[in-house]
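Hi team,

Below is the intake form for Putative enoyl-CoA hydratase echA8 from Mycolicibacterium parafortuitum. Please confirm the fields before the structure is written into the shared record.

FORM ID: S-0412
PROTEIN: Putative enoyl-CoA hydratase echA8
ORGANISM: Mycolicibacterium parafortuitum
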Amino acid sequence: MTELPTEVDLGAEELSGRIDGDTLTVTISRPEKRNALTADGYHGIKRAAMIVADEPALNFLVITGSGDVFCAGGDMNAVGNPDRKWDAFTEAYDGTPFETLGKIPKIVVCAVNGLALGGGLVMTLYADLVLASDRARLRIPDLTRGVYEAFVAARLPQRIGTLRANHLVYGNDWIDAAEAERLGLVGKVVAHDALEAETRALLDRVRNTGPAARAAMKREMARPLPSVDVSGYWASIGTAEQIEAFTAFLQKRSPEWPTASDRDAFVSTRRPAWAPRDS
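The structure came back. Fields below:
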């Protein structure tokens, strides 16, 4: 069998890939942007997942971050990056790695070393195992950006229950690691400095299980999960609401949500049933 390289080029400056035994570990390192991922970064994580899926000698994909940040999601300033390597234009509908993480027959582990929000949190929803540092903080800010986060909607209620999911999605509050563990959003919280060792120990325990049986178990547990409304997700990108939300975020102000509706004429016919007419 061909010996696998130690270092793996994932095609994104913010990602480093390293193979150790049967494990490919991807580390997100972009501290100046809180480890926010570019389009190349998202594609690189998908590439890592496919490498693990293909290679018989690899059983695990571990995703983690550098410092005290796991991943702050996608970089909203990097959309028009002229140095982008991946063709995000023609492959936009398949631009995120989330479903790939859930579909490959190998085990995906998120070692959440700190801040996780947006796409960083979504990756944990499609991973098979999630360990978190006691310094981790998590948030789902997508609705504040005017984005219909279909990937969250398809997995979060199943993981923690609909009502608790509603509070996280609509309230967009930060939660700490202990609360995330209580809700079932992460599997286990460990001391920050012990996260790497605890991840290795967890993988050692998983190695005591049969690889083929693991793959079958993963496939069966995923079977009843709802499909992701990817077309709806992309339909929410580029709307007046989403553009205003992104602009407000970049300008560090509150959004001024558009109120126009294509149902105005219909609503006006119903209003007399409850609102008094003008004199």
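SUMMARY LINE: The chain has two domains: 7-231, 238-273.

Thanks, M.
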